[in-house]
Amino acid sequence: LFRSFVREYRSDPISIVGAVKVPGVYQIQARKTLIEALAMAQGFSESGKMLPGRNVVITHKKQERLDPQESQPPESEVIPIKALLESGDPKWNVVVYPGDIIRVVPAGNFYVAGDVNQPGSFILSDFDNVSSIQAVAMAGGTKKTAKLKEAVIIRHDSSGNRAEETINLKAVLEGKVTDPKLGANDILFIPGSVGKAAGLRGIEAALQVATGVLVFGL
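RE: above sequence
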């Protein structure tokens, strides 16, 4: 019995990655709750470069059992962060076992550029997407010289190719057309005094400086 106990609860690493303060490999000798495991990584990241998104994804390693009738955990579990922290329901504070991988999914970013007061990158910490009106508001509104009828959303399509969607923001603001959504890595560009082509080149340069990554080949 003692040998079996040691075999099930031997020290074995868990990996905690993603939007936590101290990602890494941690040794545990017994099962822990998800909150206990996250505490080992000092909790969720508070860095502006990487904030937690909506979910924690746990990939479970197949476990040895003392009791052959005891069921295995599912191969993976998706835990909503908001429910884990706010609901108080113990079903979200699941058990983590030696060998598991815990990934705190980082929040996505979208970008607003062009003739707005505060262009830049914005975090989708609580939502999968935002409306174009919300995006404009987060960028401090448009300037008087903004060409609202010529706004463009730039994104990757399902094949990974760059795609553009021209939107009439004036009509959106007047409630005449549907307000389109922006998701992770989308760019809302609102032209103004600078021409569209030059403005798009400026977006690409700015994003490369800010992130070090070529987001779109503009």
